[in-house]
Structure formats: C-alpha cells, structure tokens
C-alpha cells in the first residue's frame, strides 16, 4: 500500500482559501501532486547529514564593492518623460495616494 500524499486535494483547497485564491477543481489534483513533490524534496534534504557543514548566510562568498558617488550627466527630461502616461510640466503625474 502506497503512502498518503503529503498534500491532497483538500489541503490544496484549504491553502488556496487561506491565500484568497480561486483554484479550479480540475487543477487541485495537479497542484496536490506538485506540492507533494516539493514536500518530498524537502524531506530528502532533511535526511542529509550536515553536521560538519558550517552555517552560511549566502551560498557564494562575495564582498560589497563601493564606488565613489560622483555626479554625472543626467537623462534629459524629455527622454525621461517620453513614456510617461501623464505629466505635469517637467514631472511625472501620479494618482493621489494620501488624502491631504
């Protein structure tokens, strides 16, 4: 007898509800299989012996490279605003977000 999938159709529907997503009934089985594969992959990783692996913050070592912040030539106003849906003078026009 095979083991029960980690994620079944009901679990997909529950997760979709929590995320306020609408999932077609036909898609729930496919999503259940895909999510089960993801959980199985994590279970495989969980079984790995990493006791001799030093914790890292990033998988690749790198160092921040700082550069001098020098003023340079700016993009011409007309070119910067060429694709703007709306403009007011030499500025982008945007919808009001905060009431005055």
Written description of the protein model:
With 100 residues, the protein is mainly α. It has a domain of 38 residues. It is 36% helix and 4% strand. It has three helices and two strands. A two-stranded antiparallel sheet has the order 1-2. Helix 1 packs across helix 2. The protein is flat and about 65 Å long. 3% of the residues are buried. The mean pLDDT is 89.
Descriptive key words:
mainly alpha, 3 helices, two-stranded antiparallel ribbon, 100 residues
* Overall spatial form: flat
Helix/strand/pairing class, anyone? mainly alpha
Low-confidence stretches: none
Strand content: under 5%
Helix content percent band: 25-40%
Strand order of the largest sheet: 1-2
**Main sheet, how many strands, which sense, barrel?**
2 strands, antiparallel
Count of alpha/pi helices = 3
Q: Determine Rg (CA atoms, Å).
A: 26 Å
Helix/strand order? HHHEE
Distance between the termini: 66 Å
What is the total tally of β strands? 2
State mean pLDDT (0 to 100 scale): 89
């Amino acid at each position: 007898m095979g083991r029960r999938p980690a994620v079944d159709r009901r679990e997909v529907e529950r997760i979709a509800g929590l995320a306020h997503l609408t999932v077609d009934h036909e898609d729930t089985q496919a999503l259940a299989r895909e999510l089960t594969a993801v959980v199985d992959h994590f279970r495989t990783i969980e079984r790995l012996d990493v006791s001799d692996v030093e914790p890292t913050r990033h998988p690749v070592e790198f160092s921040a490279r700082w550069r001098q912040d020098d003023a340079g030539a700016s993009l011409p106003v007309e070119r910067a605003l060429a694709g703007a849906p709306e403009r007011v003078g030499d500025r982008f026009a945007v919808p009001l977000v905060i009431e005055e």
